[in-house]
Amino acid sequence: MSRRILIRMVAAATIVMTVTALLVAIHSRPTIGRGDFDQLRAGMSRAEVETILHGPPRNDLAHPVLVWMPRAGGRAVSARFGPASPAVEFLVKEDRPRGLPPGRMASAADDFFPDARLQGGRQDVWASPTGLVAVLYDGEGRLADRYFSTVDARPPPTVLGWLASRPAAIRRSMGL
Predict the structure, then answer these.
(1) Which one is predicted more confidently, 156 or 32?
(2) Can you give the pTM of this predicted structure?
(3) List of long-range contacts for 146-152, beta carbons under 8 Å, 24+ apart
(4) Could you tell me the residue ranges of all domains in the chain?
């Protein structure tokens, strides 16, 4: 093997490894989970909360997921939460916040603490495929309340998956 070919092979391998390392670094943001949530304590500053939750509020979801949204009185309802969006779609009409026009999605940042809505302060939301954390800061910027929801992050069905399911559905409908 000539020296020239060897140098080209080493250069190609180096380029492939560098590109792979960059892609892994870009797509490997820490996920938000119950362990992170359990570290949050009342009275923490916003900077402390962001350190524990691996950065500023964000939505790392790749597709719509189902989450639990607290409602006034402590009841929780399921809702659809979209990727790269602070909006929430309630699955049942009766669960929608009062005064929300039909066809509009609710803002998640305003809806995780329904009992505290009139008290002021700021709400932030972190969402990842492993969990959703919402925090409420008081008027002084200190952590006043926190909320955690599990996330049902099953990917949406693909066209090929749907087509593959049709023969089985037809056989079931015919009692075969």
Answers:
(1) 32
(2) 0.67
(3) 146/37, 146/40, 147/70, 147/112, 147/113, 148/34, 148/37, 149/67, 149/68, 149/69, 150/67, 150/68, 151/61, 151/65, 151/66, 151/67, 151/81, 151/127, 152/65, 152/66, 152/67
(4) 1-30, 31-155
Question: What is the C-alpha to C-alpha distance for residues 102 and 43, in angstroms, rounded to an integer?
Answer: 38
Of the listed ranges 13-17, 61-65, 133-137, the one predicted with least confidence: 61-65
Q: Average the pLDDT over each of 13-22, 39-48, 143-152 and give the range with the smallest value.
A: 13-22
φ/ψ (deg, to 5) at 9: -65, -40
Decide if 123 contacts 106 (C-beta within 8 A): no
